[in-house]
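Lab notebook, page 48
Experiment: co-folding of the full assembly
Goal: obtain a model of how the components sit together before planning crosslinking
Operator: M.T.
Materials (sequences as entered):
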Amino acid sequence: QVQLIQSGAEVKKPGASVKVSCKASGYTFTGYYIHWVRQAPGQGLEWMGWINPNSGGTNYAQKFQGRATMTRDTSISTAYMELSRLRSDDTAVYYCASYYGSGLGAFDFWGQGTLITVSS
Amino acid sequence: DIQMTQSPSSLSASVGDRVTIACRASQGISNYLAWYQQKPGKVPKLLIYAASTLQSGVPSRFSGSGSGTDFTLTISSLQPEDVATYYCQKYNSAPGTFGQGTRLEIK
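Observation: model returned without errors.
Model output:
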């Protein structure tokens, strides 16, 4: 079955970087865009951007341009989201999500989420 | 960017009630709207896409309607397991903005 398995929780200091992975299985990894969505504690969902696993092309929400970098390794069907210059308000659960299509769509499968805590 | 505004922010209703949640886009998005349900501590779950198409496996008491700027999610007969936060999301073009969420509780 389709699965997105994310890396484990991390604690980072302000100013550091974090790289979250999202390993896909059960479908053709290069066929469907991977999106990243985050959720701060007690807050709503925030779309961060996408990567096209086939071409490596990306599209970032303006808020994250220059600080987020989405990449992929097709040999291991894994997408990555790296966020730099971390601040305390980057503390959140980060999800990867996808659907059977390209570009934006309604996400019918999600990773389990990765908690990133930014604290000194 | 297009903003997505949900109302109300929270809602309390009795089992068996008909519940309606609204989502308004600041500009027209045709029918490129999805609804998600998120239970505490869980991953969001897709309920409805294309404004009114029920995702496979979702109970038929959930329905969606609307086009352009105004959309609604309706639960025809509220069940205890429907306690959750509900989000709308636009996907006509980037960014894929979500509404702020509507927390639904049982009275």
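Interpretation: The CA atoms of residues 32 and 92 of chain B lie 5 Å apart.
Next step: discuss with group before ordering constructs.
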